Amino acid sequence: MKIMINGINANLRFSSAHIIPAHDSCGFIHGHSYFVDVEIEGNRSGDYDFVVDFKDVKKSVRTICKQLDHRVLIPINNNNMNFKDLGDSNNLKTLDFENRKYVEFNIENKYYKFPMEDCVLLPLKHSSAEDLSQYFAYKVFEDLIKKSYEIDSVSVCVNEGIGQGAFFKKTK
Ligand SMILES: [Zn+2]
């Protein structure tokens, strides 16, 4: 059986700034009001025969939304971003940025410097809807497995406003 949660109606949203490095139009810093739709497939189980308790799903998604909300999204494994004093972007970990007050990087001939507290560092190649939907799906899947639900998949659509989004399905 499948349960579905609509991000607009259930208030699973966040607003963030990002850059798609080296892209013609999205290579300029800009923002989106994102919302997150979720679908979960699995067996009904437990005292109430739920696939999952909606409350548990919303809590998991909201925790991630809260981390991203009102921040600049920094995909630390992006090949077009060169971080100051740090090595190969493919192998960077969020820990490598520990104790830094600023996130500093260049993209081609543009240099950026943000206060660390304004940013969220993501272990991703891109801060696109595609990478974000994958990020959400893995995290929500992990949270629900920890709660012993018998789920087969978690699908997440991260929408960049109304009318366009990327959908990723994480299976067992
Ligand atoms: Zn964008």
Automatic annotation (TrEMBL):
Any Pfam family hit: PTPS
SUPFAM superfamilies the UniProt entry points to: Tetrahydrobiopterin biosynthesis enzymes-like
Gene Ontology MF terms in the entry: 6-carboxytetrahydropterin synthase activity; metal ion binding
Keyword vocabulary terms for this entry: Lyase, Metal-binding, Zinc
Cofactor: Zn(2+)
Enzyme class: lyase
Record keyword Glycoprotein present: no
Protein name, entry field: 6-carboxy-5,6,7,8-tetrahydropterin synthase
Organism: Methanobrevibacter cuticularis
